[in-house]
Structures are given as C-alpha cells and as structure tokens.
Amino acid sequence: MTRKLTAICFSPTGTTRKIVTAVADGTGLEYDTIDLTLPSSRSQTLEFGSDDLVVMGIPVYAGRVPSLLSETLASIKAEGALMVPVVVYGNRHYDDSLLELKDILEGKGAICIAAAAFIGEHSYTSKVASGRPDSEDLESAKRFGTALMGFLDKVTDSYVKFDVPGKNPYKERKPSKRVAPVTDDSCIECGICALSCPTGAIDFRDFSTADSNLCIKCCSCVKKCPVDAKHFNDESVASFAGWLETNCIERKLPELFIPVI
Ligand SMILES: Cc1cc2nc3c(=O)[nH]c(=O)nc-3n(C[C@H](O)[C@H](O)[C@H](O)COP(=O)(O)O)c2cc1C
To answer: Residue by residue, what is the 3-state secondary structure of the chain?
Structure first.
C-alpha cells in the first residue's frame, strides 16, 4: 500500500527540523513538510488517516513536549494514521517527552510504528552537543527512515506494541522566571529575530523590545541573529548554561525504538 508521507516539526533553532528531514529522506518517499515553528503555521488543522505516514519531531523542553504545542497537538486528527514520534534533546536527557508525544498521538487514534530520540546542540549553549546533529546523527536518522520502510507493510496485520522510556505522570512542569532576550549595539535591525520568533514576542517596530510574557526562551533569536546581538543576560539562564557545560558534555547517542514484527 502506498502511503503519503508528511514530516512535521517544531524547531526554533533548526536541529529538530534537520533530524525529521533526514528521517523522511531515508524513507525514499516523496513528502511534504509542515513546520509548526511560526505562530501562523500552528493555526492549521492537521488531519491524517489510514493512507498517511507521519514523522513528528519536537524538541525536548524540560523533559517534556513543549507546552506551546499543546493546543496544536490536541487538535490533530489521526485515526488510523501511521506515526513516528521523534524527540530531539540537548544532550542532558529526554525524560518523559518521547512517551508523552507517543501517548498524545496514540490518543488521537494514530498507530505509532516506531520512535526515536536524537541529540541536537543545546539551545542555551553551543558548548553542549556542539554542531549536532552532525553527520553521524544525520546518517543514523536516515537509516532509521530506511528501516521504517522495511516493516511498513507488515504493520497492519502483525502490529506489535513497543515501549519507550519515560514515566506517566510526566515530569512536573515547574513555572520558570519570565525573561526576554536583550539586544546589544551590534544589532543591524535585519528583523530576522522578529520574523522567526515562534511566539511573536519580538516587537516588529523595535527589534530590541521583547515581551517576557510571550518569550519561551527557545533561543531562536539568539541562534539566528547574524551578528550575535541577542542574548539572555538573566542569571537563571547563564547559571543553567554553566551547569549544562559542566554536567552534560559526554556524547549521548541516538536511541531508536522499533517494534519486533
Ligand atoms: C526551554 C528549553 C528547555 C530545554 N529542555 C531540555 C531538556 O530537558 N533536556 C535536554 O537535553 N535539552 C533541553 N533543551 C535543549 C533542546 O531540547 C535542544 O537544544 C534541541 O536540539 C532544540 O531543538 P530545535 O533546534 O529544534 O529548537 C531545552 C531547550 C529549551 C529552549
């Protein structure tokens, strides 16, 4: 049976998109990409059925699925669709996020046929998982995509459930201090920060103004600024980055979860 492949991602700093693209490329199928990073893209209705294969990738935020996606994920229709939940994390841990994403998709009627956790450069510091996903990660993601095709047609008659790590109730979401990025004098007012902000937190009339009530500290503006003019100078962000640089340096490897069929 031919299936229509869709690659979906939310990816403020671009690593999740790279992984999802590599997985989709590995299948050898043609596919559409739906990038949910910008606010306008999250208002569309996502509807899939039994002819669809969907690779869904999200970055891990505090061990969970980003809460910004709650509404979008709650509105997905996926009865009978084959889905592949993928999480990308910054070399600390993915905690309950993969289980949570799989549970959400299965709760929408999807059949999750495999799942994976990959590593991307940490949003808060380029010293943790620097440059990842690298060529090894992307090769692994591609091979994962190719492996999916090996058992796709067997799924309907001999589908075997599989487990992914994680606990339910999921890790508690702790309220974090509201902060917004600051802008230094090197800003060239190109507007890339405002155009790429997933929550519209940056003022289009004055790119140095950001709304801390909207900012989710995803670091899209920090990493995309061509002249490094955006920073979080709040102590809570700096000390967490320092903790990551001390404790999360050892290279973690992609984990693939494929049911035995
Ligand atoms: C708010 C926030 C929370 C994060 N929490 C975690 C975490 O719990 N574990 C981890 O290893 N990385 C964590 N990260 C790092 C991201 O998961 C990682 O850098 C990912 O590659 C970013 O994906 P993106 O490039 O698609 O935005 C967090 C990043 C942000 C912005």
So the answer is: CCCEEEEEECCCCCHHHHHHHHHHHHHCCCEEEEECCCHHHHHCCCECCCCEEEEEEEECECCECCHHHHHHHHCCECCCCEEEEEEEECCCCCCCHHHHHHHHHHHCCCEECCEEEEECCCCCCCCCCCCCCCHHHHHHHHHHHHHHHHHHHHCCCCCCCCCCCCCCCCCCCCCCCCCCCEECCCCCCCCHHHHHCCCCCECCCCCCCECCCCCCCCCHHHHHCCCCCEECCCHHHHHHHHHHHHHCCCCCCCEEECCCC
